[in-house]
Design brief:
This protein is of the alpha+beta class. The protein contains 7 helices and 14 strands.
């Protein structure tokens, strides 16, 4: 099964920068996107052979997740079932016979870390949600998780230390998640490779490849041996993020 995840930073904008062509070329069985920034029906995109599922934020033009699936899931769940965390369209869960696919757009801690305390609450609640799913069947988590986990995952680790997405607290929560029985698919196959999935629009960052790896496929560790490929498609443009891929036997 081939899975793709991409923070499109506004689906309507991305559609004007080749999204449909990239979607077709990547040829995924499940294609997950984050930061759609739209309500249902606001984009004209309906690829043949796929069923669409969306989860929009209550605030218009903000956040949001969506999936296009060749095979329809058994169930689709929006949110994590906790009222304080379920207003921003951040988690879409698809249940299949052998696994859960969780599409997530993790809250950003923001400039000045003004949302870091909320982010810590979110992390604990979301990890508990994933563990409850994992107790039933394996989990594949994808999305923009808004954290560069290790120094290898960010170009300028020293100057960015304690910036949003590279605080000790956020990195620690990623470690807690992995220690709870999950594996970072890219690092399973590419333990030492330096490759990024997000670049600031400022300072010609993408041109200089001064990026961060903050987009992931995280899998239950008990299925990590089924991973066949884990790729970062930094040759694909259209957003400040690029698509990431997981090929896995399921």
């Amino acid at each position: 099964m081939k899975l793709i995840s991409w923070n499109v930073n506004g689906l309507r904008a991305c559609l004007t920068h080749g999204f449909a062509e990239s979607f077709a070329a990547l040829d995924a069985d499940i294609f997950s996107v984050q930061e759609t920034k739209m309500q249902p029906g606001q984009a004209d995109f309906a690829p043949d052979g796929y069923t669409e599922y969306t989860y929009s934020a209550e605030k218009k033009g903000y956040s949001g997740t969506a999936c296009w699936c060749r095979e329809q899931p058994l169930t689709v769940t929006a949110g994590i079932g906790i009222e304080q965390h379920d207003h921003e369209g951040r988690v879409l869960t698809l249940e299949y016979p052998g696994f859960w696919l969780v599409n997530c757009y993790t809250p950003n801690s923001q400039d000045g870390l003004k949302r870091l305390d909320y982010r810590m609450e979110w992390e604990d609640a979301f990890r508990a949600y994933l563990l409850a799913l994992d107790a039933k069947k394996p989990v594949i988590l994808c999305g923009d998780l808004n954290v560069a986990h290790r120094e290898i995952d960010i170009k300028n680790d020293k100057t960015n230390h304690m910036s949003a997405g590279f605080t000790d607290q956020e990195r620690g929560k990623m470690t807690e998640l992995l220690d709870a029985g999950f594996a970072d698919s890219f690092r399973v196959l590419h333990p030492d490779e330096v490759k990024y999935s997000w670049w600031s629009y400022r300072f010609h960052a993408r041109e200089k490849n001064a990026g961060w790896r903050i987009d992931y496929f995280i899998v239950s560790r008990r299925i990590a041996d089924r991973i066949r490929a884990a790729e970062i498609h930094n040759e694909i443009f259209g957003s400040d993020h690029c698509p990431v891929e997981l090929d896995i036997d399921l």
